[in-house]
Amino acid sequence: MGVAKFPKRFAKEEKKVPEFEFQMVREDLVQLIDKSITRYVNVGTHRGIKVRWRWETKPNRQMYSLFDEVPLAMAIDEVLSNAVKYSFENFAVDVSIGSTSDDRFWNISIRDHGIRIPDDKLKEVFEPGRRLMLEPSYHGHYKAERPGYGMGLAYVKAIVEKHGGQVSITCKPSFKAREYPSLEYEQRHTVVVNIHIPKN
Ligand SMILES: Nc1ncnc2c1ncn2[C@@H]1O[C@H](COP(=O)(O)OP(=O)(O)O)[C@@H](O)[C@H]1O
Ligand SMILES: [Mg+2]
To answer: Which of 127, 128, 131, 155 minimizes the C-alpha distance to 143?
Structure first.
């Protein structure tokens, strides 16, 4: 009897984001991001996709914050991996870091040019197990070439919030939408993930 119920319970458990022990250290975020860029710089080259500091210039100063570099590097890696995976061919993934206008957070910004996320799905993508590629409207975008479990952004959100920060995602057409609603998903969109980490 218990055995019969197991698969269902297991599936539910599997979709939870586990708790981590965090070891917060005051370090330079620029270095952390630079290492992530180095790990991802060649991942998309077969599709003509480059990962780079925006304007190809690494910020020339240090930006300190209190963080655990292992999970935070995982979070940045995951967002870079999505940016490469969902980018159209021959575009760059641009990474930048700056201050929020209220001066309280560092804003790490990761931008790609590719597949659209509809406005009403911008929050849902952070839910564990959520993948828009499973929806029929996305099948023109070669689902098979974009494998995943839909857990990445759920981890990113949990890790960033554990640092007292926030993550958000925006999407807008890369050029003026033409009058073909059926092509809405095929058009190139600019997707930006913003990660806010407290300056402390
Ligand atoms: N840069 C992006 N451009 C377009 N869609 C994205 C992007 N990043 C994430 N998504 C959408 O959000 C969903 C959830 O992302 P994630 O949790 O990382 O799952 P996965 O990468 O395994 O598909 C993805 O399946 C995709 O539909
Ligand atoms: Mg992912």
So the answer is: 131
Q: pLDDT tens across 152-172, in order?
A: 999 999 999 999 999 999 999
Check: CATH 3.40.50.10300 for 21-198? no
**Cα 43 to ligand 2 centroid, rounded to whole Å:** 14
The answer to whether 52 touches 94, Cβ cutoff 8 Å, is: yes
Domain ranges of the chain: 21-198
Question: DSSP code of 16?
Answer: S
Nearest CA to ligand 1 atom 25: 131
What is the CB < 6 Å shell around ligand 1?
82-83, 86, 112, 114-115, 117, 125, 130-133, 148-154, 191
Q: What Å distances lie between residue 131 and 77, 82, 125, CA to CA? A: 18, 12, 7
Q: How far is CA 159 from CA 19, 85, 153, 175, in A?
A: 9, 21, 10, 33
Task: Write down the residue that tokens 């304007």 correspond to.
Answer: 55
What pLDDT digit, counting tens, does each position of 13-26 carry? 566 777 778 999 99
